[in-house]
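The instructor's notes for this session suggest beginning with a concrete chain rather than abstract definitions. Hand out the sequence below and ask the class to guess, before any prediction is shown, which regions might be ordered.
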Amino acid sequence: MGLFILRRVGVMILTALCLTFIVFWLTNLYPNLEKLAKTQGNFRMSDEAVTSYLTNRGYTQSLPVKYGQWLGVLPGYVIEGSDGETRSRCEEGKTFCGIIQGDWGYSTVFQDEVSTIVAKRLGVTGFLMLWVMIVMVPGALIIGVLAGMREGSGTDRSLSTVSILSTATPEYVSGVILIALLGTKAVIDWDTVPFKGSATSAIDDPNFWNMFLPVITIALYGMGYIARMTRASMTEVMTAQYIRTARLKGVSFPKIVMRHALRNALIAPFTVIMLQFPWLLNGVVIVETLFQYKGFGFALVNAASNNDIELLLGVSIVSVFVVLITQLISDIGYVFLNPRIRIS
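After discussion, reveal the predicted structure:
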């Protein structure tokens, strides 16, 4: 197991380097750099002024050199600008200043350190993700198990239909419907609307009323997919020979489901559940924008729309890290869910 984890960690590091290099290359294309220069300077800047701005700040260096400096494996640039001022990537006394050294850059939109912004926004989104998983996973497993226990029954057909409808409805549709039904005073004849259509207040004071709508919006979309996978896996397990043997021995049906069928049926849904973490981290963009919940997805939208290169790179690091870690956890989890699986 230890050797397997070490090999996987090595592959993860190589994958992370490749993915971050691609993102770095895309964000450092000249049109993006030109837009950055004009945003920070003047939109009427001449081509010569743009070139001077980019040269003085190290953007015209070769891509591998810039990537190495951003990672922190190459010394930061020291350039004497055309105005006679010397500019350095690193603070005084430092030669290396990149991701490895904890210097994630400076956000031109939020006017703060990227590491500080990412940590704060990730914590806000993490709180939302926690409650989504608490609502989504148990609900999906219960629906899937109940539907798969008795294939073809009325309960199976009803729950399967609900699962398909929830998965087929995008978050921006279900979110708008929930806001219209539960978050709008004009629709419901209440003196005060209990559920908040905006989750901005949840950042400082999270409670049931301002978190309910965004949590339910995300949970409904993911719940149907997990439930369908659980139902399919449970249906297959319930027809296995050892389940029939247990029934012939007189084992009660609830005990068969809980002790024998459920553990084997959870292997496929476990993969889907683990994949929900990277989906939630990046898929909350629509929901956070819709409910004005200023978390990780909200920061990503602002960084992309305002060409905030350093923040985009910081967000990409976190996204890649979450995807790779969840895949590693899912692979390790297989062994504990099914002892027949061995790592050679």
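Then share the key points. The mean pLDDT is 84. The first strand starts at residue 78 and ends at 80.
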